[in-house]
Amino acid sequence: MDFSIYQSVEMFCPNCGHKITGYLSEDGALRIMCDRCKVVIYSKRKNVKEFNIKVTNPYAIKGVG
Ligand SMILES: [Zn+2]
User: pLDDT tens digits for 1-27?
Assistant: First the structure.
């Protein structure tokens, strides 16, 4: 098995700006959990130019805001 296909990706958390590192899987999907604010970032490449990025916060407090 060739692990060199798993490319590391550095990005800043869209929620708190903390620098986080994740790994691209072979299908181009990326899952990272921010170790500061605990949001989960899911990124999927749509085509060469476009990425879909979804941010979820499993620890969000309901009813606030
Ligand atoms: Zn964060």
Answer: 555 667 888 999 999 999 999 888 878
Rounded to the nearest angstrom, the distance between the alpha carbon of 16 and the centre of ligand 1 is 4
The encoded tokens of residue 40 equal 């989960």
Cα–ligand 1 centroid distance for 19 (angstroms): 8
**What phi and psi, each to the nearest 5 degrees, are found at residue 44?**
-135, 130
* CA–CA separation, 65 and 42 (whole Å): 24
Range 9-14, long-range pairs (CB < 8 A, 24+ positions): 11/41, 13/37, 13/39, 13/41, 14/39, 14/41, 14/53, 14/55
